[in-house]
């Protein structure tokens, strides 16, 4: 599930009816506070979101590493069996992550 929700809304600003991109945090996974009835980011929720973000980044790097291995002729190495990066895999100079 995505961390943020993206939608376009028609908003009247400066005497113009125009569409604007609205970005809001996805609050579906966040529990409601029993006292106030409001959803709030607790430290636990923030840590969970950070962990998910890091795992997603790691998956992207693993995919790039797998593509590198294929480019040098190592096609029979399963992703799950890799324990370290290939010595010629330039971890510091990976391409920028494309926007979703």
TrEMBL record:
Origin: domain of life: Eukaryota
InterPro entries from the UniProt entry: CDT1_Gemini-bd-like, WH_DNA-bd_sf
Domain CDT1 Geminin-binding: 2-99
Annotated SUPFAM superfamilies: Winged helix' DNA-binding domain
The protein's name: CDT1 protein
């Amino acid at each position: 599930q995505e961390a943020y929700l993206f939608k376009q809304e028609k908003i009247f600003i400066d005497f113009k009816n125009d569409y604007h991109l609205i970005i809001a945090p996805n609050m579906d996974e966040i529990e409601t506070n029993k006292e106030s009835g409001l959803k709030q980011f607790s430290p636990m929720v923030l840590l969970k979101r950070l962990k998910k973000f890091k795992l997603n980044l790691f998956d992207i790097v693993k995919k790039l590493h797998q593509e590198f291995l294929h480019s040098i002729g190592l096609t029979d190495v399963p992703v799950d069996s890799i324990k370290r990066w290939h010595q010629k895999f330039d971890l510091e100079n990976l391409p920028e992550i494309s926007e979703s």
